[in-house]
Amino acid sequence: MYLIAIAWFYVALLAAVSDDTVVGGVLTFIFYGLAPMALFLWLFGTSARRRRQKAREAAEDLNDRADSGADQ
C-alpha cells in the first residue's frame, strides 16, 4: 500500500515541478498528490484501524477480568 503512495507522490511531484508557476505547482501537488493520497490511505487503512480497535478492546476486557479475579 505504501509503495503505491510513494509512487503517486513521485508522479505528483514531477507534475508539480513541471508546472509554469510556483502557485500552480503547489496547487498541483496538493490536489493531485496530497488530497488523493490522504483519501486513499484513509480508505484502505480502515480495516487495520478496526483490527487494532478490536485487539485493544479484547486486551482491556482481558485486563478487566484479570483484575476482578485478583480482587476476590
Description:
- This protein is mostly helical and 72 residues long.
- It has one domain.
- It has three helices and no strands.
- Helix 1 packs antiparallel against helix 2.
- The longest helix has 26 residues.
- The protein is rod-shaped.
- The N and C termini lie far apart (48 Å).
Keywords:
single chain; 72 residues; mainly alpha; 3 helices
Query: What is the beta-strand fraction?
Result: under 5%
Mean pLDDT: 88
Instruction: Name the overall outline.
Output: rod-shaped
Question: Could you say which structural class the secondary elements and strand pairing correspond to?
Answer: mainly alpha
Largest sheet: none
Report how far the terminal alpha carbons are from each other.
Answer: 48 Å
Low-confidence stretches: none
Q: How large is the count of helical segments?
A: 3
Number of domains: 1
Helix content: over 70%
Computed over alpha carbons, the radius of gyration is 22 Å
Record field, number of beta strands = 0
- How would you spell out the order of helices and strands? HHH
